Amino acid sequence: MTLLTFVLTRVLPGSPIDEIAGPMATSQQRQALMRHYGLDRPLWTQYVAYLGGLARGDLGTSFVTSRPVAADLASFFPATMELTTWAMLLAVVVGVPLGVWSAVHRGTWIDHATRVLAVAGLALPVFWVSLVLIYLCFYVWHLVPPPIGRLPALVTPPPPVTGWMVVDSALARNWAVLGDAARQLILPVAVLALAAVAPLARVARTSMLDVLGAEHIRATRSLGIPWRRVVWTYALRNAMLPVLTMLAIVYGYLLGGSVLVETLFAWPGMGRYAFNAISGNDYPAAQGFILYATVVYLVIFIVVDVCSAILDPRIRT
Amino acid sequence: MRSFGLRLALAVVLALAGLGGIPAGSVGAPAGGSDTLVIAVSRDMQNLDPTNASSDSFTLETLTNVYSWLIDYKLVKQPNGQMIGDPNAFVGNLAEAYRFTDGGRKLVVTLRRGLEFSNGDPLDAAAVKFTYDRLFDQNATTAALTRMAKITDKGSVKVLDDHTVEFDIADPNTLVLGNMSQYGHAILNPRVVRPHMTADDPAAHEWLKSNTKGTESGPYLLESWEPGVQFTFARNPHYWGPPARIARVVFRIVPDPSTRLALLKSGNVDIARDLAPLDEVELMHDPSVTVYRFPTRITSFLGMNAKVPPFNNVKVRQAIAWATPYNTIIRNVMVGFARPLTSPVPSGMPTHTDQYFAYRTDPAKAKALLAEAGYPNGLSVTFTSRADLAESKGIAVWLRSGLAQAGITVTINEMQGAAFTAALQRHDLVFFHHPGWNSINNDPFYHLYWLMQSACCDYTNYANATVNDLITKNMISTDLKARAAASRRIQQIATEEAAWVFLYQPDLVLTTRKTIGGVVFYPADVRVRYYYMTKE
Predict the structure, then answer these.
(1) Could you give the CA distance from residue A3 to residue A33 in angstroms, rounded to a whole number?
(2) Under a CB-based contact definition with an 8 Å cutoff, are residues B136 and B143 in contact?
(3) B161 Cβ partners below 8 Å, 6+ apart?
(4) Are B350 and B88 in contact (CB under 8 A)?
(5) Which residues in A131-163 are b (16+ Cβ under 10 Å) and which e?
(6) Are the Cβ atoms of B27 and A145 closer than 8 angstroms?
């Protein structure tokens, strides 16, 4: 994986030195910079040095931000994590009941309305939804604060503990900043949640329909147990497995950072960091991001596997 | 189930109501008090080492506002009342006075008394000497430019006393003052920078890349920098001149131009930078916004590689110059925020003339030239534009339809920014748009040297023996009459030979709220100075 990333970032056309050196630099000065950044050494030597750094937890130094990549990731990751997690929570709270509800009321107007919502969530481009919501909610109606990032420009951030603005300002008991941070989250969270509700609701509906048609549910029902209890206690637990997998896929995808949402809301997250790293040929930053994304995916799927095992005793064997 | 549905609906409504429940005062409020400016910028700064900086605009703007140098451009009032920094008139900055002696072979600079760096350390002749020693030891871009003006090495910079420094100039020339009036010559604090100099990094490049603390000498100091989020200037209490009127300048990184536009229109920022040209036109009708337009000397042209067929044929280059839809491009792509470029030496630079520019859009004439060049049935060419630059993409589209009328079929090849820059610097591009070159030194030979002779930047491989000879002979000279004649001759040859397709000189457009005043334009480096700005 690291080898693949290492080679891929380096075969892209262009060189980070072009960005660093400026147009008037002579070839000697370019050479000097190549030496300074260790780019003049053979590729395999650079790779060995990179691996050696990795073993010590050193991901190298970004050419663009001039900071250690690990420090960059540590500051950009919580921004994406906070945005994505709130969006996923909202999507689960809205999407799963919506899917269950439309499965239970299959074929009624509720079912159709849910399906329209799900299709809209999938079909409407997220940048378009963002622009429309920014225009209406911020510019026309003044319902939300300006889309200027995690905090208003003149607000001092709370001392970083978790990197989550909402949590850190609560820990610092700074309620004004907590309010500011929460308000900045409203619109980007809503946009991301809208995109995530659609797949969750669809999977929840399909899976619930399967389970409700199963014999044991019909048997449970014939025993005279109230329908609501059948749905929410017996069926839901069985229907959750595919939903959990979909949740992991969507969450992992969003944790990679949404370049469009982060760009439109000036959100300093992973998506923009990765985009800048790749377009600026910032090798260490691009490698660091891919490594990060891989680890995030692994962790999420391990967590999902554990949760699946808890929900379904058959998996444990 | 009905009750569940109702409960869910109620929960959603309550949640939405809660989301919308924002105190009215917190939205659409003005950006900070009257002593704070909030600016929405498109990107972050990068490498802040003054003598080896990255060339992106916000890095250079920061260097220009937090550092000072010995000599600077003189402020003058234009007939329309606009203040500008005259690119051809100089005054002392950290220098109280300066004078050329020995027939222009020495420049003696006397420092102001009591100068201090932002941490209170004295800024004296020793600091100047330290700065120039480091500059020559590092041997990066600023060193090369300084050598070009014939201040050749460390030995050329001598401390006469605590307040006086003498520069030896090997050959008297007109480049010295223009070269010294820029960020590369920022005087650095030896007590702060020296501890960061190591055997591996003798120029303390790593530290200076992302730090300025304690070594600032300009009207502002860099108070904080949160990469990817914002950076902030604060008034430098140790600045030698009257204090800046705005106490803090907050640069917020807002990557999307439509978001920056919304922030400016709603008054959430005082200035929005790099808006889409069409939006800037629309803002001219907004009573709460001022759109400043300043003519620049930035040269934007189409490059045709003179070493690669068919562009090695002068007649083909001329045919393209006759077929290019100049006015359409200025009107549609630049929406009028540009003026025609009519010579390799831009308007506003001494000795510029448009008397040799005969080209206009004439497909018949272009066809005739193509036939003479041996292409009676037309020609197919590939045009390279930058995928990340709207301006470049727009030009490609209009160029294709314009050239088609002259029987030239254009295939558009879009290249990503980094790949484009790499190919440009290898001089590998064949037919392309150069988005703009600005020569800080307002000197025609300095400008012509870089774009038509230097190893780095003669991107089109243009070579003409007479032009080369004239550049070499007049580069270092104080004979203004001979230089003017030579510059006109070069302009004649390069225009007639269609060295490039001369497109336009874009305007610098700055969009601010009406409350912002004191905007001063510096045509030499096109950098914004916040020192003079005011806010009602």
Answers:
(1) 24
(2) yes
(3) B125
(4) yes
(5) bebbeebbbeebbbbbbbbbbbbebebbeeeee
(6) yes
* % of chain A with per-residue pLDDT over 90: 35
How much of chain A exceeds pLDDT 70, in percent? 99
Contacts of B440 (CB under 8 A, 6+ apart): B178, B182, B524, B525
Nearest of A45, A92, A32 to residue A307 by alpha carbon: A92
A115 exposed, middle or buried (CB, 10 Å; 0-12, 13-18, 19+)?
A: middle
pLDDT at A304: 86
pLDDT computed for residue A125 by the predictor: 87
Count the residues in chain A.
Answer: 317
Q: Report which secondary-structure segment, H or E, holds B143.
A: helix B141-148
Contact A54, A69 (CB under 8 A): no
Contacts of B1 in chain A (CB under 8 A): 104-105, 227-228
pLDDT at residue number A301: 87
Q: What is the pLDDT of residue A116?
A: 87
| Greatest mean pLDDT among A121-130, A136-145, B505-514 | B505-514
Per-residue pLDDT for A187 more than 80?
A: yes
Closest residue by Cα to residue B111 from B101, B125, B91: B125
Give per-residue pLDDT as tens, A266-288: 999 999 898 888 888 888 999 99
Question: What value of ipTM does the predicted structure carry?
Answer: 0.88
Rounded distance between C-alpha atoms, residue B55 and residue A175, angstroms: 42
Identify the residue whose tokens are 């208003």: A152
Report the alpha-carbon distance of residue B248 to residue B220 in Å, rounded.
8
Handedness of CA B101, B104, B109, B110 (dihedral sign): positive
- Give chain A's radius of gyration (CA, Å): 24
Q: Which of B211, B229, B451 to mutate to test the interface with A (most CBs of A within 10 A)?
A: B229
Q: Which residue, chain included where needed, has tokens 């050696």? A: A52
Contact status, residue B61 vs residue B528, Cβ threshold 8 Å: yes
Cis peptide before B202, with omega less than 30 degrees from 0? Answer: no
Is B8's pLDDT higher than 70?
A: no
Q: Do the beta carbons of residue B348 and residue B297 sit within 8 Å?
A: yes
Task: Provide the 8-state DSSP code for B454.
Answer: -
Q: Are B316 and B498 in contact (CB under 8 A)?
A: no
Radius of gyration of chain B (CA): 26
For residue B14, count CB atoms less than 10 angstroms from its CB and return exposed for 0-12, middle for 13-18, buried for 19 or more: exposed
Q: CA of B1: which chain A residue's CA is closest?
A: A228
Which position has the token pair 């709270």?
A: A93
- The string of DSSP codes covering A152-180 is -TTPPPPPPSSS-HHHHHHHTT-HHHHHH
Instruction: Indicate yes or no: CB of B144 within 8 angstroms of CB of A154.
Output: no
In this complex, do A14 and B418 lie within 8 Å of one another by their Cβ atoms?
yes
Query: A44 touching B, CB under 8 A?
Result: no
The string of pLDDT tens digits covering residues B18-52 is: 443 333 333 444 566 789 999 999 999 988 999 98
pLDDT of residue B233: 98
Give the model's pLDDT for residue A317: 62
Of B8, B262, B421, the CB nearest to A18: B421
The predicted model scores a pTM of: 0.90
Q: Name residue B506's beta-bridge partners.
A: B338
Tokens standing for residue B317: 């280059």
A204 and A95 Cβ atoms separated by less than 8 Å: yes
Question: If you count them, how many residues does chain B have?
Answer: 536
Amino acid residing at B96: E
Cα(A164)–Cα(A160) distance, integer angstroms: 8
Mean pLDDT taken over chain B? 92
B103 half-sphere exposure, CB direction, 13 A CA radius: 4
Which of residues A52 and B72 earns the better pLDDT score? Answer: B72
φ/ψ bin of B81: left (φ > 0), alpha (ψ from -120 to 50), beta (otherwise) = left
Which DSSP category does B333 fall into? I
